[in-house]
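During the reporting period the student researcher (J.K.) took over the structure-prediction task from the postdoctoral fellow and processed the backlog of single-chain submissions. One of the processed entries is reproduced below for the supervisory committee.
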Amino acid sequence: MFTKLKIVSIFCLISFAAFAQEITPAKQFWNTLQTHCGKAYEGALELPKEDKDFGGKTLTMHVRKCSETEMKIPFFVGDDKSRTWILTYKNDRITLKHDHRHEDGSEDKINFYGGTTTNTGKADIQVFSTDEKTQQMIPGAATNVWWITIDETTFTYNLRRLGTDRVFRVVMDITKPIKTPEAPWGWKE
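J.K. obtained the following structure tokens:
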């Protein structure tokens, strides 16, 4: 026969098990992005409206390499295949790094900059503040804040340099996968 104490104990164990299995916003974000592994999409520059490097060019992202803890997302600007966003998931935090390569595959002198989330964020947005290594490498980027959003229709990559007019926003349409592009510069097939 169950006593009140046994019933309460069973209820507490069930509640604890349900709580332990709860998925954090960072993990939800990660899982959503993982559903796009192997797919490529096109998008457009939203901000700044006039940009000599990105404006009017075909923008393509390819969620190319995925594992439990890392995703590599090449980002092409027209024929320029120099950029890859690298996301790493560890201890319920996500790190964003930027890998920049020259056409011959060699690393750019400004490479692997970015930041790590300071909390679990939200399921549809993760925010990355500049890390110390980036501040040392690019002193002007000390106030950079990047954020990535994802929902049913769009993926956005955003940059804001606090205290300045510097703002950057790319919006990718993730409802229409496109043909998988070639490898970015420096990658082996």
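The committee noted the following: The longest strand covers residues 80-90.
J.K. will present the remaining backlog at the next meeting.
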